[in-house]
Amino acid sequence: MIDFHTHAPAWHTASWLSGAGFDTGDFVAFLDSAGIDRAVVLSHDGLFNPTPEANDELAAFVGACPERLVGLGTVSPRRPGALEEAERLLTVLGLRGLKLHPWLQGFSPHELALDPICETVGAAGGIVLSHDGTPPYSTPAQIAALARRHPRVAFVLGHGGLHDCWREALACTQETPNLFLCICGTPPYAARRILQQAPPDRVLFGSDAGLSQRASQDYAVARVLELDGWGITDEQREAMLDDNPRRLLSGEWS
């Protein structure tokens, strides 16, 4: 099983999202407890303050267990040096792609400054995962429009539209061949509909682990256990939890 949406600790950020402190060993112990083989890890501090230092710390965190952890760095397209930092996190740091959070980082997916950044990620065979489900700057349709501007780059809706925009996320995924949908924080009734109607080769799962007040990430373990109540087939489970994320991480998604 591959969990496509988890977070490193908030080492420096005090926010409503700040969870427990934990190290790589603690996080791998959580993975073992939840039956997760590999996890895609996103910066926490970098969502609030997208600096090179945040990417350095994420790279060190996943680099302590590279066989289990894959990192996606972050930049804010409005900041000077964003393109150079995108290149650095892919080449020097060895991260697998880019996490965008337009809502927290305060930019629109329609901004043209994103285009060279996305092309840089695509040229390296990387992934662009974006927060979605919280208007005004993080709707699935806005992210799908960005994906359509870059049809050779793999994009991921990081939350499958959450509670308010999941229908939009489903429609956009159906219409955009290079757009994947990660069921992460999406309500179970919506997850079932998504699995019934979305392209079966472009659905992923994420627990959003890393935000808990406990290093054991109990809520994320519960989200994994929820899968048994979704009524999904063995084929859907295999595609969502193994085949699709594996192809995406290997660059063999198209």
Q: Which descriptors apply to this entry?
A:
254 residues, alpha/beta, TIM Barrel, eight-stranded parallel beta sheet, 11 helices, globular
Short description:
The protein is of the alpha/beta class. The chain has helices at residues 24-34, 45-48, 52-63, 82-91, 102-105, 114-123, 140-149, 166-175, 188-197, 218-226, 234-250; strands at 2-7, 38-42, 69-73, 97-100, 127-130, 154-157, 179-183, 203-205.
3D structure, described in words:
The protein is of the alpha/beta class. It has a single domain (2-250), classed as Alpha-Beta Barrel (TIM Barrel). Helices cover 42% and strands 14% of the residues. The protein has 11 helices and 8 strands. It has helices at residues 24-34, 45-48, 52-63, 82-91, 102-105, 114-123, 140-149, 166-175, 188-197, 218-226, 234-250, and strands at residues 2-7, 38-42, 69-73, 97-100, 127-130, 154-157, 179-183, 203-205. Strands 1-2-3-4-5-6-7-8 form an 8-stranded parallel beta sheet, with helices on both faces. Strand 7 (179-183), helix 9 (188-197) and strand 8 form a beta-alpha-beta unit. Helix 4 (82-91) packs parallel to helix 6 (114-123). It is globular. The mean pLDDT is 95.
How many strand units?
8
The CATH superfamily bears the name Metal-dependent hydrolases
From the N-terminal CA to the C-terminal CA, the straight-line distance is 21 Å
Question: By helix and strand content, what is the structural category?
Answer: alpha/beta
pLDDT average, as an integer?
95
- Quick one: biggest sheet? 8 strands, parallel
CATH structural fold name: TIM Barrel
SSE order, as H and E?
EHEHHEHEHHEHEHEHEHH
Helix content: 40-55%
Strand order of the largest sheet: 1-2-3-4-5-6-7-8
Low-confidence stretches: none
CATH class (first level) name: Alpha Beta
* Radius of gyration of CA atoms, rounded to a whole number: 16 Å
What count of helical segments does DSSP give?
11
Strand content: 5-15%
